[in-house]
Design the sequence.
């Protein structure tokens, strides 16, 4: 019995992990373990022998069990100590600097111009970027054969073979939104439609996706004088100047008659643009009185109602306002471009008092 005791207590002392310990438990005090086998031999003993051997075996079993549980908690303690030694955090380390985002200049320009037109009484409407060709062209007095369809470098959506429905297109202007607004609201109406538009055109001054804001005001006695006043108020507020002079040049668009391109007085000093003063003129938008056919396409009676419309490229407005000379800045994911062009929001101090990089 002493042999058993020293054998198992020795093995327990040597055990390196819980699995080893469990194997020892099964071999020593398990149902078919050595101690159990010895217990079975008690029946063959004389009562005197049994009186000695019985309690001794029980004591041995107890001793092995308590050695097992002592060793088990010693192993757990050692494992915890090991984790505490290896898994530690230096809570005094500084955090990693995070890149700070900022609003995109086109979004910022859109927000600013929307606020200005809202003050002038215009509501804001949005619509789908995939349009059918009726909303994008026909309703705007651009029929199928019209050269403007070709000039607009339209992206056509794929149609399955045999599908002869009229094509869907990526809208080439936000004008369809104004048609939809007229249909929904009727007259009188004052609405602006900002948003992305698409034309298959790519060079130094054109990108296949760009942004427009178009405006529409329809009532019984709206004239080009109202158009001129609205545009003057807009230009002064957007470019933050007290006064501005606009020049209307006769032009042609299918959806307006008469049509005018609008220039603003400006000067370029050493590449620095000043708006409202100087001897130069810069074209900033197109406009006109809405063609009666277009008013009718919007479900409004052109015998009773008339109105003006205008279209402005937001990307260019943003470039002029924030001094961004290169369209690439809008599409380049490298934020250094934007910071270079003075997008101060990128340099906001972070929590550590430094500048985000
Ligand atoms: C409706 C009726 C008329 C919107 C107009 C222009 C003139 C125009 C250009 C400006 C720069 C497009 O982004 S750009 O290249 N737009 O010159 N847009 S009148 O006329 C409308 C719109 C909707 C129902």
Sequence:
């Amino acid at each position: 019995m002493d042999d058993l005791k020293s054998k198992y207590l020795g093995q327990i002392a040597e055990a390196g992990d819980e699995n080893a310990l469990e194997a020892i438990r099964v071999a020593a005090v398990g149902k078919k373990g050595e101690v159990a086998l010895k217990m079975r031999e008690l029946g063959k003993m004389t009562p005197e022998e049994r009186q000695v051997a019985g309690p001794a075996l029980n004591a041995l079993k107890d001793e092995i069990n308590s050695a097992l549980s002592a060793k088990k908690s010693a192993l757990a303690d050692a494992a915890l100590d090991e984790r505490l030694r290896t898994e530690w955090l230096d809570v005094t380390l500084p955090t990693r600097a995070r890149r700070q985002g900022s609003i995109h200049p086109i979004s910022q320009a859109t927000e600013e111009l929307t606020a200005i037109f809202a003050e002038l009484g215009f509501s804001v409407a949005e619509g789908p970027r995939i349009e059918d060709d009726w909303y994008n062209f026909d309703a705007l007095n651009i029929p199928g054969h019209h050269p403007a369809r070709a000039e607009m470098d339209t992206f056509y959506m794929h149609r399955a073979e045999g599908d002869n429905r009229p094509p869907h297109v990526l809208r080439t202007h936000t004008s369809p939104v104004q048609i939809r607004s007229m249909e929904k609201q009727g007259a009188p109406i004052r609405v602006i439609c900002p948003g992305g538009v698409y034309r298959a055109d790519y060079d130094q001054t054109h990108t296949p996706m760009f942004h427009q804001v178009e405006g529409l005001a329809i009532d019984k006695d709206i004239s080009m004088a109202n158009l001129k006043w609205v545009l003057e108020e807009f230009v002064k507020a957007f470019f933050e100047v007290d006064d501005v002079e606009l020049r209307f040049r006769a032009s042609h668009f299918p959806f307006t008659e008469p049509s005018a391109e609008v220039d603003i007085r400006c000067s370029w000093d050493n590449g620095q643009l000043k708006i409202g003063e100087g001897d130069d003129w810069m074209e900033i938008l197109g406009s006109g009185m809405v063609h009666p056919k277009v008013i009718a396409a919007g479900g409004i009676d052109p015998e009773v109602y008339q109105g003006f419309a205008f279209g402005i490229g937001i990307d260019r407005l943003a470039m002029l306002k924030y001094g961004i000379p290169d369209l690439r800045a809008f599409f380049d994911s490298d934020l250094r471009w934007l910071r270079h062009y003075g997008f101060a929001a990128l340099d906001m101090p972070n929590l550590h008092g430094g500048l985000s990089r």
Remarks:
- Strands lie at 123-124, 130-132, 168-170, 189-198, 209-219, 246-253, 256-269, 272-275, 280-290, 306-313.
- The pocket of 2U9 is lined by residues 175, 178-179, 212, 214, 216, 253, 255-256, 285-288, 290, 294, 309-313 (CB under 6 Å).
- Residues 121-325 form a domain with the BirA Bifunctional Protein; domain 2 fold (CATH 3.30.930.10).
- The first strand starts at residue 123 and ends at 124.
